[in-house]
Amino acid sequence: MALCTGLLLTFLTLIALGQLAPTIAADNVAVQWNLLVSQFVCTHNMQPTESNFLYLQTALAQWHALLALKDTGACTTDEAVVAFASRALLAAYLPFEEDNTIDPFLDAQLQTLHLTRSQKRLAQSMGEAVALDIVARRLKDPRRTFTYGPTREAVDERENDPTPGLYRFLNYTGNTPSLIIQRSALGQTFVLPNALAYIEENLKHFGPPKVPSPEWDVEYEQLVKIGRDNWKGRTKEMNQTAGFIFGSQQKGSLCRSPVDFWFAIARTVLPPKTSLYDTALLFSKLGVAIHDSRVVLSTLQYGFWYWRPPTAFRAGDANHKPIPNWSQYILWNTHPEYPSGATTISGSAGAVMELYFGKTDVPFTIQGTYPGPACGNSTDVIGPRHYKSFAAAVEDTKLGRMYAGAHYNISVRHGAELGAKVANYIWKNWGMSTPSGILPASAYLNVVSKQPSKAGEFRPLKLEY
Ligand SMILES: *[C@@H]1O[C@H](CO)[C@@H](O)[C@H](O)[C@H]1NC(C)=O
Ligand SMILES: *[C@@H]1O[C@H](CO)[C@@H](O)[C@H](O)[C@H]1NC(C)=O
Ligand SMILES: *[C@@H]1O[C@H](CO)[C@@H](O)[C@H](O)[C@H]1NC(C)=O
Ligand SMILES: *[C@@H]1O[C@H](CO)[C@@H](O)[C@H](O)[C@H]1NC(C)=O
Ligand SMILES: *[C@@H]1O[C@H](CO)[C@@H](O)[C@H](O)[C@H]1NC(C)=O
């Protein structure tokens, strides 16, 4: 009994800590697990790709569990299969959270569901089966292991041969190391058959400006001031927009990235009576659209290898004198610049929300839940942010990344455009079965990565056989 009380307390504490709790419109078992994922993202400070992976696979497990239950007509409940599927999925990825968080959370939830022993047993075996199937299918994803080395070598090769417009490492003193993070190019998509083929067919007009060129002059001028750390014209609103969108900057920022922004938006705007099925399906579509757009995004980033603002402004080019002490407001230099990942996420998620609601002018207010750095003294707290539409939240993301000094205007615009395009494809082709592919496991293939010889050229990562 003492144990049960303890578990219930843990659940109640989680709800109380879940700073988002008051803003939930639709409260059901699927939403509750989505909130638990948002806590994991925050406590483990997960990167966008990883956090979205958890949100999306939890939702897919829920949706599959509901379909399995409907198809078999087993004697248990929707809530029970959703709970057990979520539990199995999260325990598979975060086994270290099982004892202290996941199982107490499940246990407290089960107490509210009043299930018989056999309903629990059935739900458990069904939930585990669908969740582990989802996990197993992702194990073949070649993305990280085999692409990190080749992309790093492609940068190193050029370190001593700087070409205006191309990405390279920078030596920052006592600051973020210039690491390269390659998470998604060549990654497995969920619905889109192939990112590269998609780009060749649908994004022909994409590409960053050549350097030098009049187009580059425009991008340069639009960012050199507003992106700079110590520009005198910076306003509090600019600082807060940048800090909020990038995440984990100050109290009231998003917990890490726009991924959390959009799941919080979905929890906020879904009507209270939304069914479990509709909730799980919408969360799945959000996550899949974000994921597949990010594979397209990375394919572009590691094909164009465009230079980041600190490289560009410090190095200068034929039409611009070097500004050796130029620093961006939020320093982050881990992947080629074009296009912006944050606006890709927002463009993609914003389009899914518009498709779900059949309109854009749905207003909402979001409070970022980042609790602030443990030993920071900043008193600047970002308050709730109000948006009159999904499109307004996408615009805020664009400005936030420019005010951070992280992306040129063309890159934030193209990120949002590609996200929305891919989201529309995902929405239209949701139930399509995907090809299984003809290639052997990536362990038996070479990943080839080469930087272009000049800015504007596209040389995507390739698998060689
Ligand atoms: C960067 O730092 C490394 C090691 O400190 C040094 O060897 C290299 O010359 C530096 N590169 C530039 C471009 O300053
Ligand atoms: C970005 O470009 C668009 C389209 O040209 C323009 O309307 C907008 O004002 C630009 N934003 C900034 C911050 O310069
Ligand atoms: C914006 O941030 C910069 C850089 O940290 C800081 O110097 C400036 O005081 C801030 N501006 C306002 C109005 O808060
Ligand atoms: C950057 O360098 C310029 C030119 O040397 C100087 O005028 C300016 O004060 C410097 N800015 C900072 C923030 O160090
Ligand atoms: C915070 O303030 C304390 C007390 O003034 C100071 O000792 C500490 O260095 C500050 N920490 C940071 C990260 O600025």
Automatic annotation (TrEMBL):
Gene3D superfamilies: 1.10.606.20. The keyword Glycoprotein does not apply. Keywords: Signal. InterPro entries: PAP2/HPO_sf (IPR036938), V-haloperoxidase (IPR052559). The keyword Signal applies. It comes from the Eukaryota. Residues 1-26 form the signal peptide. This is Phosphatidic acid phosphatase type 2/haloperoxidase domain-containing protein. It comes from Ceratodon purpureus.
